[in-house]
């Protein structure tokens, strides 16, 4: 009980220190609570809505995720140009004309608050707010921000869809021209190598076999006629006569050719080369027979030499005709062989041309398909049927300030002042080792006093002490608000100092 009375007495003796610190801290807190300007925060929420047309029914040409699109919009919104334009149009700051560009941009960014909310199974939402000392200005800034966001989102998606459409239009045009060029190359190559193309190789090989067969037949006929001529000359040299039957060899040859023609017509058409050859031989043989029938001398017999000459002339004419046919067949066969030899190289080149054409055609078809999808995507974006940003809660001018909490600041200052006052008194008492009680004499000096007499101040000392305390209190009560006002007016606004302190302490009072 004595100790409690002692400590109460000590506290009362040092009460002026407690009161001084309490009044100083409380005055500072209350002054700051009064001086701090009001802060009005206008807020809105934006929602990213998915496309109204399912992806299964169309291929989106703008494939930007919701959170990614909001992040892009945020970066574009916070550009220097946008912030300066909005700040000057709304006249956010009273001294904006005297502020530098960097100060305006920094102040706008500090006053703007953007929150993104997204996640699996959650809607993608952007929270947008702006703090100002005027509610109308705060709402005006947020409204302009919302307008910029909606316009930028729409124009950005439309521009990207238009750029995609333009790209595929250029692709289709370019590939179409390449197809035309490659088609011309293939056509020119086919015209230049009409007789040596791979698709006619089978026909030409068959034709080669037929011509080779004709060549063999002509060579056999020539050999037969030459053997016949040799026998006639040999018989004439031995007998001096030539057998002249009632039917001449020319007539026999004509009959044989006519039989060959009938057999050929049973197999081939009248336009077949073999049929044409036989008909030409028949025509020549008929001319020979007719000329022989007109050679007649007196009597029933012709001279032997005349018959021999006629026979030999007939054989020679037929051999010459066959030789001429052989020459034509050889030339034709040579042309055919040359074309067959060129076919392999032409096939390789034509395959290369066709392969390039096929590849280009595939690219062209893909580009046309992509162009169709891009046109649909652009139409969707123009009609705002794709992914869009909508305003959930339009920004309005707040009727009451959001901060500062003046009562809380003042109460916190009063409590802090009381705590600091008690702490200072306790510190003084803890550091004071002087003797103030009889028990201190016993504890420190080991002497038990008979009686103790306290220090008695003179009336003048009491007056001076009280005047000093009153003067200090008056100085604190008047000086602290004056000092705070001077700092706020000539050094730095108290609200900025408060924001810096709150930021460092992590406080959001």
Q: Which regions are unreliable across 5 or more consecutive residues at pLDDT < 50?
A: 295-305
Portion in strands:
5-15%
Q: Could you give a short account of the major beta sheet?
A: 4 strands, antiparallel
Percentage of residues in helical conformation: over 70%
Outline:
rod-shaped
Distance between the termini: 43 Å
Rg, Å, rounded: 61 Å
The topology string of helices and strands comes to HHEHHHEEHHHHHEHHHH
Helix run count = 14
The averaged pLDDT comes out at: 75
Structural class of the secondary structure composition?
Answer: alpha+beta
| Cross-sheet strand order for the largest sheet | 2-3-1-4
Q: What is the number of E strands?
A: 4
What does this structure look like?
The chain has 509 residues and is of the alpha+beta class. Helix content is 71%, strand content 7%. It has 14 helices and four strands. A four-stranded antiparallel β-sheet has the order 2-3-1-4. A hairpin with a 2-residue loop joins strand 2 (112-119) and strand 3 (122-132). The chain is rod-shaped, with a radius of gyration of 61 Å. The two termini are 43 Å apart. The model is unreliable at 295-305 (pLDDT under 50).
Q: In summary, what is this structure?
A:
This protein has 14 helices and 4 strands. It is an alpha+beta fold and about 500 residues long.
Could you name the key traits of this structure?
4 strands, alpha+beta, 14 helices, single chain, 509 residues, rod-shaped, 4-stranded antiparallel β-sheet, 71% helix
């Amino acid at each position: 009980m004595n100790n409690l009375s002692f400590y109460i007495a000590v506290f009362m003796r040092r009460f002026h220190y407690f009161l001084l610190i309490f009044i100083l801290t409380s005055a500072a807190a209350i002054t700051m609570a009064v001086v701090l300007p009001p802060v009005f925060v206008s807020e809105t929420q934006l929602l990213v809505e998915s496309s109204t047309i399912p992806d299964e029914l169309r291929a989106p040409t703008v494939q930007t995720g919701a959170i990614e699109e909001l992040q892009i919009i945020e970066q574009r919104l916070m550009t220097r140009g946008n912030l300066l334009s909005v700040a000057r149009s709304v006249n956010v700051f009273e001294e904006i004309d005297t502020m530098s560009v960097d100060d305006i941009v920094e102040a706008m960014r500090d006053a703007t608050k953007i929150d993104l909310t997204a996640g699996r199974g959650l809607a993608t939402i952007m929270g947008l707010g702006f703090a100002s000392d005027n509610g109308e200005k705060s709402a005006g800034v947020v409204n302009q921000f919302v307008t910029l966001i909606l316009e930028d989102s729409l124009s950005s998606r439309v521009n990207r869809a238009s750029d995609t459409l333009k790209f595929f239009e250029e692709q289709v045009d370019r590939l179409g021209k390449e197809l035309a060029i490659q088609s011309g190359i293939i056509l020119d190559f086919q015209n230049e190598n009409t007789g040596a193309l791979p698709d006619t190789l089978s026909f030409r090989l068959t034709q080669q076999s037929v011509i080779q067969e004709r060549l063999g037949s002509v060579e056999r006929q020539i050999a037969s006629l030459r053997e016949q001529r040799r026998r006639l000359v040999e018989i004439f040299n031995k007998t001096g006569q030539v057998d002249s039957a009632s039917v001449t060899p020319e007539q026999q040859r004509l009959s044989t050719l006519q039989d060959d023609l009938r057999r050929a017509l049973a197999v081939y058409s009248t336009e077949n080369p073999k049929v044409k050859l036989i008909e030409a031989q028949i025509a020549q043989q008929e001319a020979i027979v007719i000329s022989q029938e007109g050679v007649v001398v007196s009597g029933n017999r012709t001279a032997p030499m005349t018959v021999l000459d006629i026979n030999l002339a007939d054989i020679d004419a037929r051999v010459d005709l066959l030789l001429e046919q052989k020459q034509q067949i050889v030339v034709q066969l040579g042309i055919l062989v040359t074309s067959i030899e060129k076919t392999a190289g032409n096939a390789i080149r034509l395959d290369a041309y066709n392969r390039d054409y096929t590849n280009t055609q595939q690219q062209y078809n893909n580009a046309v398909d992509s162009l169709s999808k891009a046109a649909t995507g652009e139409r969707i974006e123009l009609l705002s049927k794709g992914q869009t940003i909508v305003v959930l809660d339009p920004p309005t001018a707040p009727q009451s300030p959001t901060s500062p909490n003046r009562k809380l600041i003042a109460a916190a200052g009063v409590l802090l002042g009381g705590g600091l006052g008690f702490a200072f008194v306790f510190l003084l008492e803890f550091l004071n080792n002087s003797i103030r009680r009889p028990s201190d004499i016993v504890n420190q000096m080991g002497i038990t006093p008979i009686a103790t007499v306290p220090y008695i101040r003179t009336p003048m000392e009491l007056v001076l002490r009280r005047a000093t305390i009153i003067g200090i209190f008056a100085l604190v009560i008047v000086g602290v608000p004056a000092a705070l006002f001077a700092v706020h007016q000539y050094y730095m606004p108290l609200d900025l100092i408060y924001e810096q302190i709150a930021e460092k302490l992590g406080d959001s009072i």
